[in-house]
Write a structure and sequence with these properties.
By secondary structure, the chain is an all-alpha fold. The protein is built from eleven helices and no strands.
C-alpha cells in the first residue's frame, strides 16, 4: 500500500510540476513582491532604521524569505481550486490510485516552487550586499526551518483551495500572512514598538522564526527562539493538516 501511495504521488506530482514549469511566471511573480519590498526597505528606509552593527539587508532578509513563502502558497490554493472546479478530482476518484496522493502532489509541488523562489530572492539579496559566514550546518538548519514553514502554510492553503467558492477567495487568505512580518521583528526591532503592538509582535510565530534564521546567518546562539519557532511550525502543520483532510473528505464524499 505504501509503495502505491509513493508511486501515485510521484506521478501526480510530475503532472502538477509540469504545470508550474510551463508557467514559470508564477514563480517569478512570487519573488517579485518580496524583492520589491527588499529594495524599498534597504534603499529607502534602511538608513533610518538602527540595527546596530548588522547591515540592514542582512537584518531584514529572514522576514523577506517568509513573505516569499506566504506569497507562494497563494498559488498552491489557486492550483488546487482550479483542479477542483475542472472536475479532475472526480476523475481521479474513479481511478485505482491513492486518494491522498492528489493532495500530496500539490503539497510537494508547493515545496519545490517555493524553494526556487527562495533561491531567487537570496540571489538578489547577495547582489544587494547580503553576506553570511554561516557554515553548512547553519544553512541546512535555515533550509529545514523554511521548508517546515512552507509545509505548514501549504497545508493551510489546501483548506481554501478545497472550500473556496471563487478563485479570488482561494488566494485571498494569504494576504494577512504576507503582511504578518510587518508586525514582527522582521523589519524593525520590537523594542521600538508601543506596548500592545510589541507584545503581539513578540508572541506571534514570525518573530521567533525570523530571530532564529537571523542568528543562524550571523553565527549567533539561537537560544529558545528555535524551539518556539519549531513549535509554531509543527503546531500550524498539525492543525492545518487535520482541517485540510477533513475538508478533502467532505469534498470527495
Amino acid at each position: 500500500m505504501t509503495a502505491y501511495f509513493f508511486n501515485d504521488t510521484a506521478a501526480l506530482t510530475g503532472r502538477t510540476l509540469r504545470h508550474v514549469t510551463r508557467s514559470m511566471d508564477t514563480i517569478i511573480t512570487t519573488a517579485i513582491t518580496p524583492v520589491a519590498m527588499m529594495l524599498m526597505f534597504v534603499y529607502v528606509f534602511g538608513g533610518a532604521i538602527d540595527t546596530g552593527s548588522v547591515s540592514y539587508v542582512n537584518y531584514m532578509l529572514p522576514g523577506i524569505l517568509l513573505m516569499t513563502i506566504a506569497s507562494g502558497i497563494s498559488y498552491t490554493a489557486y492550483r488546487l481550486f482550479t483542479d477542483v472546479k475542472s472536475g479532475i478530482f472526480e476523475r481521479f476518484q474513479s481511478m485505482p490510485i491513492a486518494r491522498s496522493g492528489v493532495l500530496w502532489a500539490h503539497v510537494v509541488t508547493s515545496l519545490v516552487a517555493n524553494l526556487i523562489a527562495l533561491v531567487l530572492v537570496v540571489g538578489v539579496a547577495v547582489l544587494m550586499g547580503f553576506r553570511s559566514g554561516a557554515g553548512v550546518s547553519a544553512w541546512l538548519a535555515v533550509t529545514g526551518i523554511l521548508l517546515l514553514f512552507t509545509l505548514a502554510l501549504t497545508w493551510l492553503a489546501v483548506i481554501p483551495g478545497l472550500s473556496a467558492s471563487s478563485v479570488e477567495g482561494a488566494g485571498a487568505f494569504a494576504y494577512p500572512l504576507i503582511f504578518l512580518p510587518f508586525v514582527s521583528s522582521a523589519f524593525v526591532p520590537t523594542k521600538t514598538m508601543p506596548g500592545p503592538v510589541r507584545w503581539f509582535a513578540e508572541h506571534q510565530p514570525v518573530t521567533s522564526i525570523v530571530n532564529t534564521i537571523r542568528n543562524l546567518f550571523a553565527q549567533q546562539p539561537v537560544g529558545d527562539d528555535i524551539w518556539t519557532a519549531l513549535a509554531w511550525c509543527v503546531g500550524i502543520l498539525v492543525v492545518a493538516y487535520i482541517f485540510a483532510m477533513a475538508a478533502y473528505r467532505r469534498k470527495i464524499a
